[in-house]
Amino acid sequence: MAVGIFDSGLGGLTVLDAVTRRLPEVPFVYFGDNAHAPYGVRTADDIFNLTCAATERLWDEGCDLVILACNTASAAALKRMQETWVPPEKRVLGVFVPLIEALTERQWGDNSPPREVAVKHVALFATPATVASRAFQRELAFRAIGVDVEAQPCGGVVDAIEQGDEILAEALVRSHVEALKRRMPNPEAAILGCTHYPLMETVFQEALGAGVKVYSQANLVAESLADYLTRRPQFLGPGTQSKFLTTGDPTYVSNKATQFLRRKITFEAA
Fold first, then answer.
1. Cis (ω within 30 of 0) for the bond into 38?
2. Is the pLDDT of residue 242 over 70?
3. Domain with 168 in it
4. What whole-number distance in Å separates Cα of residue 112 and Cα of residue 129?
5. Is the domain of 54 the same as that of 102?
């Protein structure tokens, strides 16, 4: 009954932490492709091939359902994977869905025509690859009209977080928020479109101001996953053990992950 959680690095641990609290009875296998992180500066074909390889590794661990807890992979690879690669007995889901559900206040299965929503001016902070894909804007347009989305590619933030350089990460976040606000001075809501960014959520909120509602993914994904598994329990795979896998140096990644989650995390070589 294991579920796979994939990220290019450590950011997906924010999602893992939330889904573990929400679904304590489910074993989760986390796969971090730390050797190839960050994905945000890679080509779409690179991202697709790396994400498929990681997904297959999670299938090998008995995870019939894999969550791409990586916005870059969700934006650049997921649609192609679902249309051309994922077999019928498996499922691969992304992390945009719960964000758009929350923003538009409608369920994903609601296929009624797009309609007006309360929020009109949305700031999107994401990796360069996610911004370039325009996946968020495309999915949002299916469900809402009249929403102005201003996207800011946040180069360098993921690298700084992965390296544990909080001072640099904070400075970069403030710089990116300033750059966006020059183009959209008064956003009503902000989407943190990378699973690393919840670690900087307080900085984003301070830089944006108290009047801006910040949507962060981890808890939204956890609720969405719990609902999905209630409706489709057949995708709880045969795996029974929780574990952490990495393509990077397990000792280094374990130490960084322990700092991230403030609890002991031990990675194995993938």
1. yes
2. yes
3. 97-217
4. 30
5. no
